Amino acid sequence: MSPSKFVVCVLLIFVKSELVPESNMTQLDSMPLQSLEKDPKPSDFHFLITGGYRPKTNKLVKYVVSLRLGNSKKFFGDNHYCAGAIFSSRAILTAAHCLYSNRRKLTPKKLTVIAGTPKRLVKSDSTQIVQAHKLLPHPKYKKGKSQKYDIGIVLMKEDLSLGGSVASIPLYNKAPVAGVQCSIIGWGTVIQYGPLPDEVINGDVKILPNTFCRKLLGWSSTGMLCANDQSNTEVDSCQGDSGGPLICDNKVTGIVSFGTGCGEPDSAGIYTDVYHFRDWINENSCPRALCPMRTLLILVLQLQLTFLAIIRGVF
After folding, report:
1. Is 150 a catalytic site residue?
2. Torsion sign, CA atoms 261, 263, 13, 239
3. Do the beta carbons of residue 86 and residue 65 sit within 8 Å?
4. Which of these is catalytic: 88, 237, 242, 257?
5. pLDDT tens, 133-191?
6. pTM of this prediction?
7. Among 33, 87, 96, 211, which residue's beta carbon has the most beta carbons within 10 A?
8. In terms of Cα–Cα distance, which of 173, 130, 164 is closest to 57?
9. 78, 150, 236, 273: which one is catalytic?
10. Cα gap 201→45, rounded to integer Å
């Protein structure tokens, strides 16, 4: 553990010991401070940040949603467990493993999408809350057996209202290469198994060459890429960031998948390569039942192609 992480851990232990009765401390896990008797204030969650930062004006948060499991236990935001990227007004890109619990696929009624909320614990005028309608992990993803094909889609019951605080983000339109500057964004723990922040955190990383990635445990050249900040290896995604976007050139390039620890030396975060899965994403992000207009346009195009083929055959 690096010296900076040691200092953060000591401070967190001190804060927890001051806020939480000793008898309750053993019950704390990756969802911090849920054992408090009083509802916490947002300021209670502003801990020191390891590796990440908060820009004065966050231009990326509008693309990211918080995925909530079940109902809030004590306060708004205490059931955050994964993140996602807004692909369209009806579809959210996330990690396939975010759609499972104990190797069993979640039911849509247990998952809620929260958009337009930079602060995880604060419901504002821009907050949109939409229930999941259908969960689509990649058909080749095998929970508990492999990290391959770790991509999924959440189709919502209602459209998100897109605008200034909630926006869709396009897919990266070419195969990502080493050296591209990207950003990760989410509400994941500030250190390994540490507290979740209130306000969303950004981190800047670069895509690494496959020669580096193949050294990482579990990495595969099939639909994966890895990224870190080689000048500061503590910049990394962590628990709670899963399913969130790796954004390069203002396009979603990767989905937070897995890694060994958080911000460990000589390591990197591993992301699902969305360009590799672009066809599957496009085919499944707008099914016929939810997108009748798109279905109509496809039908018209097919009829036009059929008509042109007939004309060419006649003349």
Report:
1. yes
2. negative
3. yes
4. 242
5. 999 999 999 988 889 999 999 999 999 999 999 999 999 999 999 999 999 998 887 77
6. 0.76
7. 96
8. 164
9. 150
10. 12
